[in-house]
Design goal:
There is one protein chain. By secondary structure, the protein is of the alpha/beta class. It has 6 helices and 6 strands; from the N terminus they run H-E-H-E-E-H-H-E-H-E-E-H. The chain has a 3-stranded mixed β-sheet. It has a 3-stranded mixed β-sheet with strand order 4-5-6. Strand 2 and strand 3 form a beta hairpin.
Length: 134
């Protein structure tokens, strides 16, 4: 099967790391380092998507605010998250990344109009599959 035809379900390599919006930016940074990831998905109490916070968001917070450690994930997360379904093709994911100048998309399942994150597909995942092409 051509790489571009892989579904998000076939292409994803990892699950999804989530946090609550009230978690401190210090803890966000700690979790990113501990898990060697560049972003965390922010979810509400029921596990539904609220946003994404990235390493770049943390850098921006530390640059803009001297007391950045006291701030919360919800203060610096991106609320307009580009999402895909597990059935979407890798070609669509690549197009969304390029058009939106982003490094990852969140794969979600719709539950009565609310979005439950189930995976994150990053540019690193796309490159991984590029390296697997024979």
């Amino acid at each position: 099967m051509p790489m571009r035809a892989l579904t998000v379900m076939q292409a994803k390599r990892f699950g999804v790391w989530t946090i609550a919006p009230d978690i401190s930016l210090r803890e966000v940074a700690r979790q990113m380092v501990d898990h060697n990831i560049s972003a965390l998905v922010v979810v509400d109490e029921e596990g539904y998507l609220e946003g994404v916070i990235t390493r770049t968001d943390l850098v921006r917070a530390a640059y803009e605010q001297r007391d950045w450690m006291r701030l919360r994930a919800g203060d610096y997360m991106m609320r307009n998250v580009i999402t895909v379904s597990l059935d979407d093709r890798l070609e669509r994911v690549m197009k969304l990344m390029i058009e939106n100048h982003i490094h990852r998309v969140v794969a979600v399942e719709d539950e009565n109009g609310k979005l439950r994150p189930v995976a994150v597909l990053s540019a690193a995942d796309v490159v991984y599959h590029m390296a697997q092409v024979r």
